[in-house]
Amino acid sequence: MDNKIWYLEEVNLFKIICPHYYADYKESHEFDSYSKKEFIYFTDEPSTKVYLIDKGKVKIAYYTDEGNEVVKAILSKGEIFGEKTILGETKHNEFAQSIEKNTSICSISVGELENLMLENRNLSLKLYKFIGLRMKRLERRLEIILFKDVRKRTIEFIQELKDEYGKELLNGEILIKHPYSQKEIATLIGTSRPSLNIILNNLKEEGYLSFNGKEIILKKFKSVR
């Protein structure tokens, strides 16, 4: 499935899960605020809630036995996390950390979410579909990190950005307006920011793309190797 469809499914999911959209739940719910680098939950902490991002960004990651951090996802406004709780997960096998100041999160207990799912069959279908697609996406990204070099990882991540955020211009080029900093992209593909910058500049010199801040323009990217 096109990643762009997956992303839109997730944004719609926020709107039908968030208790603030329901009169019966709205008054008893508040958004929780987190400062930069503050943890939302830790690895091995009991898993009892699903979280929805109203504002800011959240890093989902874990540490290997060797003490190396592996970042599974960087999520932003409209996205959800902690969703494996509804599949029966009792403890988190990862941690969630705010990476922007004034990050705003809406949390919903498993019991409340199950009630909403009973009342809304469409919600149940979307939620389970979302979980399946996210797991496939994560497996693909971890496979890329484990078995491909930095250039290949960079190229495949840009392909993901194209599918999710790309818009074709009149001249046939693709404009990508994405939410990630270079540091965040480097973290997601398992490299350093200087190494990522070298690869991006090489791709620019080879005529495949140009980039500026959170915008990338793809030129002859289909033929890149």
Automatic annotation (TrEMBL):
Enumerate the InterPro entries for this protein: cNMP-bd_dom, cNMP-bd_dom_sf, Env_Response_Regulators, HTH_CRP, RmlC-like_jellyroll, WH-like_DNA-bd_sf, WH_DNA-bd_sf
All copies of the Cyclic nucleotide-binding domain together span: 13-87
SUPFAM superfamilies linked: cAMP-binding domain-like, Winged helix' DNA-binding domain
| Record domain HTH crp-type: where | 148-222
SMART domains membership: cNMP, HTH_CRP
| Matches recorded under Pfam families | cNMP_binding, HTH_Crp_2
Domain of life where this protein originates: Bacteria
Task: Write one Gene Ontology MF term.
Answer: DNA binding
| Keywords from the named record | DNA-binding, Transcription, Transcription regulation
Alphabetical GO CC annotations of the entry are: cytosol
Question: Which PANTHER family does the protein's record reference?
Answer: CRP FAMILY TRANSCRIPTIONAL REGULATORY PROTEIN (PTHR24567), HTH-TYPE TRANSCRIPTIONAL REGULATOR ARCR (PTHR24567:SF74)
Q: What is this protein called?
A: Transcriptional regulator
